[in-house]
Amino acid sequence: MNSSTIDISFVTINYNSSSHTIELVKSIVHHTSFIFEIIVIDNASQAEDYSALKNYCDTVPQVTLVRNRINAGFASGNMLGVNYASGKYYFFINNDCKLLNDAGKILKDFLDQNAQCTLATGAIYDEKGGTSSSFKQFPHPTKQLLGNSVQRLFGAKKFPSNKTTLARPTEVEVCSGSCMFFRADGFCNLGGFDTSFFLYCEEEDICKRVWDKDGVVFYLPEAKIFHAGGGSSKENLLLEKEFYISYLLLFSKHYGQFQNCLLRLALLLKLFFRIFKRQHGLNIFLFVLGGAKAKHSLRYKQFITPKVSHDGRH
């Protein structure tokens, strides 16, 4: 395929969930009305899962499947995908998502007509039909200490709450990490995802950098995507710890020492009152009290898988 003709590069990551990835690819092929490619990064899945994925991807000419020998996480996995992407736009989408309409075209057409928009997302529907995870606010000190309402009152921009139902394209502070549609040159000018983050908070970080560089992030309710994930990770202690490692890294990266201390104090107070209300409550409180050190990250528990006889690319 001539790379100059590709409008959008879909990039997704597979990790022992080939059935989800296959359904995503099917939905892209079914709904997408323009020239596209799909980059699938397999993050060192087990041999059986990878084999099932490869067998399917070999039947879809638009797919490039890349076998990663380590689980590089979200940011690094997507940055690996960018190495193989040649579209004018990058559509980073979780593998447990499915397009419900021609979302890529809706997002592309909007960015074509709005030069200041660097990043957009669509309406992300969950299994109950809700869209509350489509966008959110950045964790400002005012928000953490006094709540979302006070933050919106005093913030420079009056970003909507994720509980608000939006019927038209609207500027949002942070879009869903499960569905991020970038102008390719804008993404590259930002330096892409920060690979210091292994699994969480990549969307808060990159959206903050979009705004810091005078770009704009939009939510487009016309673009509809289903996302199956979201609820189970909080029940996994290791993943919950990973979240707080990333969350404290986000604080440190974007705030000075005083604001960082306020944010950490507010977080510890919230976690203290959740000790007896949530599973692993005491464990998480003590973990964050101890600094949620990066050395405990799942990043450092990875193993290099044996090299396969082919590179896994289609």
What does this structure look like?
With 314 residues, this protein is of the alpha/beta class. The chain folds into two domains: 3-231, Spore Coat Polysaccharide Biosynthesis Protein SpsA, Chain A (Alpha-Beta Complex); 233-301. The protein is 39% helix and 19% strand. The protein contains eleven helices and eleven strands. It has helices at residues 18-31, 47-57, 73-82, 103-113, 141-146, 148-154, 184-190, 202-212, 237-254, 257-273, 281-289, and strands at residues 8-14, 36-43, 63-68, 89-93, 97-99, 117-125, 135-136, 170-171, 174-175, 179-183, 216-227. Strands 1, 2, 3, 4, 5, 6, 8, 10 and 11 form a nine-stranded mixed β-sheet that branches. The chain has a two-stranded antiparallel ribbon with strand order 7-9. α1 links the parallel β1 and β2 (36-43).
Would you summarize the structure shown here?
With 314 residues, this protein is an alpha/beta fold. The chain has two domains: 3-231, Spore Coat Polysaccharide Biosynthesis Protein SpsA, Chain A; 233-301.
The global form is globular
What is the number of domains? 2
Biggest sheet record: 9 strands, mixed
What is the count of helical runs?
Answer: 11
How does the SSE layout of this entry go?
Blueprint: E1 8-14, H1 18-31, E2 36-43, H2 47-57, E3 63-68, H3 73-82, E4 89-93, E5 97-99, H4 103-113, E6 117-125, E7 135-136, H5 141-146, H6 148-154, E8 170-171, E9 174-175, E10 179-183, H7 184-190, H8 202-212, E11 216-227, H9 237-254, H10 257-273, H11 281-289
Parallel strand pairs: 1-2, 1-4, 2-3, 6-11
Antiparallel strand pairs: 4-10, 5-11, 6-10, 7-9, 8-11
